[in-house]
Structures are given as structure tokens and as C-alpha cells.
């Protein structure tokens, strides 16, 4: 894949990342419409019935309701061929219902790694590993190991 396409894919990822960190669910939804294929294949298990871009919109709306100050800090960004990989640290304060848990007011910090595959300049597939266990421990839903 030409170097300019790799650079374009990284730039598209950065636009998506900027929208996510805006805290504005409407902006995130519009950015998803612009940058993500409507039938994007999502390889991360999600606790929702929607698929494709609609599923991504629901995920971000849910996260922002739970963590209105959510911030995703990219620690590593690697691009090769048609894929962009990011390793992130996510922080937020639990101020809304999340996975059935009422708001605790507790801060959370967790790690995630995502792979995005691009086709025609748009995100066509995603795979992710999110440390949900760390979230649940910090929210008091799962005990810390002894």
C-alpha cells in the first residue's frame, strides 16, 4: 500500500479520535457517519443488538452517559498496509449507569488496544480488546484479587 494511503488512514483515525475526545455524542455520531462504513464489521463483543456503524454510535453514547468526562489517550499508533493499530489509556468518572451499575462517582483508568482496517479511506473493520475487568474492579463490582 502506498505511503500516502497509510498517512491518510492515520489522519482519518486521528479525526475519529478527536471526535471521541470531544465528549459530544452528536459530533461522534456525525464523524462515524463520515468516516466509518455503514456495515463496518466489529470484531469486539458488544452487549447490544445493533450492528455496523449504528453499534459504534450506541457504544459511544453509552460510554458518554456513564463517563461524561471520558478521555482516550493514544499511547502508541502504528500503521501498516490497510490497518491502523492503537494502544490507548482511557480515563473517566463514573457518573451514569454502566453495565447495570448505578453511578459511583469513582474515577476509572483502563487500557485498550484496537485495530482498524480501512477500505476506500473509510473504516471497514475493527477489532478491540478492552480491559473491562479493570473497569469493574475500580467501580467496586468485582473484588480486587487478594
Walkthrough of the structure:
This protein is an alpha+beta fold and 146 residues long. Helices cover 35% and strands 34% of the residues. The protein has a five-stranded mixed beta sheet with strand order 1-5-4-3-2. The longest helix is centred in the N-terminal third of the chain and has 18 residues, at 3-20.
Task: Estimate percent helicity.
Answer: 25-40%
H-E string? HHEHEEEEH
Beta strand %: 25-35%
Strand order of the largest sheet: 1-5-4-3-2
Radius of gyration: 15 Å
Average per-residue pLDDT, rounded, comes to 95
What is the number of beta strands? 5
Number of helices: 4
Low-confidence stretches: none
List keywords for this structure.
single chain; 146 residues; alpha+beta; 4 helices; 5 strands
Amino acid at each position: 500500500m502506498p505511503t500516502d494511503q497509510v498517512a491518510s488512514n492515520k489522519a482519518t483515525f486521528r479525526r475519529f479520535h478527536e471526535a471521541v475526545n470531544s465528549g459530544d455524542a452528536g459530533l461522534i455520531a456525525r464523524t462515524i457517519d463520515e468516516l466509518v462504513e455503514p456495515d463496518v464489521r466489529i470484531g469486539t463483543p458488544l452487549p447490544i443488538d445493533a450492528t455496523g456503524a449504528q453499534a459504534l454510535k450506541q457504544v459511544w453514547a453509552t460510554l458518554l452517559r456513564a463517563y461524561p468526562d471520558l478521555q482516550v489517550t493514544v499511547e502508541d499508533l502504528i500503521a501498516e498496509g490497510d490497518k491502523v493499530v492503537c494502544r490507548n489509556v482511557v480515563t473517566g468518572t463514573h457518573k451514569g449507569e454502566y453495565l447495570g451499575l448505578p453511578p459511583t462517582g469513582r474515577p476509572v483508568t483502563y487500557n485498550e488496544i484496537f485495530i482498524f482496517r480501512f477500505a476506500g479511506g473509510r473504516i471497514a473493520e475493527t477489532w478491540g480488546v478492552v480491559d473491562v475487568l479493570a473497569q469493574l474492579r475500580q467501580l467496586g463490582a468485582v473484588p480486587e484479587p487478594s
